[in-house]
Amino acid sequence: MREKWEKPEAILFDMDGTLFQTETLLIPVHERLFDRLRQDGLFEGDTPSVEIMLSSLGMLLAHIWERVMPGAGAEVHKRADDLLLELEIEGLRRGEGELYAGVRETLEALSGMGIRLFVASNGLPEYVKEIVEVKGLSPYIEESYTAGEYQTATKADLVRLLLDKHNIRHAWMVGDRSSDVEAGHANGLKVVGCAYAGFGKEDELANADRTIASLNELELWLTGDE
């Protein structure tokens, strides 16, 4: 029998691979981005595999470009930053990109229990907030925190800032990458690992306190229906 967890004051969610099915937006955007870089004369050759990009999700953007375009300089990485954001926002506003099944319903249920809900993401602030807005999550998400907005060096620092700002003492961290596990534990939080995205390594969530195969399991735990 699983250990019963006390209802948290707040739940902090990662975005990519946790609430948002990133590949449904990133795969078409990835191809467009490298087409634009080639048009700008900043990139030559074949488009790097999108799998490298997907496996890097959860990292800071600067580290992602080091993996995707290791030989490119700061100018190229900066242009890629700008293009990625521009193309992702365009795609979201066209209706591209999908939430995981049951996300909106689960957030509504958790919010209805009086649990405060936040996003803590290494993504760009405009991108994360656009997802929250266009995908109908703004009634449930109290605030979104991103490394890009607060210039935090690690996810643990971002989570600490969020907790301190809102005077939260008892929370869960929910995410799909080892950086989410580390950020939660560094701040004394219970960590729920999302095992449904499949972007990371096999042992990515080995140190999570629990893992889930779909987000609605959170509601089931809290209502005693699991």
Description of the molecule:
Pfam families: Hydrolase (PF00702). This is MTA/SAH nucleosidase. It comes from Xylanibacillus composti. One of its GO terms (cellular component) is cytosol. GO terms for molecular function: phosphoglycolate phosphatase activity. The protein is an alpha/beta fold and 226 residues long. The chain folds into 2 domains: 10-22 and 98-223, HAD superfamily/HAD-like (Rossmann fold); 23-93. Helix content is 45%, strand content 15%. The protein has helices spanning 23-39, 50-55, 61-68, 74-93, 103-112, 125-134, 147-150, 155-165, 178-186, 217-223, and strands at 10-13, 20-21, 98-99, 116-121, 141-146, 171-175, 190-194, 210-212. The strands form 2 sheets. The chain has a 6-stranded parallel β-sheet with strand order 5-4-1-6-7-8, sandwiched between helices. Helix 4 runs parallel beside helix 6 (125-134). It is globular. 38% of the residues are buried. The mean pLDDT is 91.
List keywords for this structure.
8 strands; globular; Rossmann fold; alpha/beta; two-stranded antiparallel ribbon; single chain; 10 helices; 6-stranded parallel beta sheet; 226 residues
Outline:
The chain is of the alpha/beta class. 45% of the residues lie in helices and 15% in strands. It contains ten helices and eight strands.
- Strand percentage lies at 5-15%
CATH C-level of the largest domain:
Alpha Beta
Q: Give start-end ranges of low-pLDDT stretches.
A: none
Under CATH, the homologous superfamily of the largest domain reads HAD superfamily/HAD-like
- Spatially, the strands of the biggest sheet line up as 5-4-1-6-7-8
Tally of alpha and pi helices: 10
Structural class, from secondary structure content?
Answer: alpha/beta
Shape: globular
Largest sheet: 6 strands, parallel
| Count of structural domains | 2
Any idea what the radius of gyration is? 18 Å
Mean pLDDT: 91
Fraction of residues in helices? 40-55%
CATH fold annotation of the largest domain: Rossmann fold
Protein name: MTA/SAH nucleosidase
GO biological process, one term: DNA repair
GO cellular component, one term: cytosol
GO molecular function: phosphoglycolate phosphatase activity
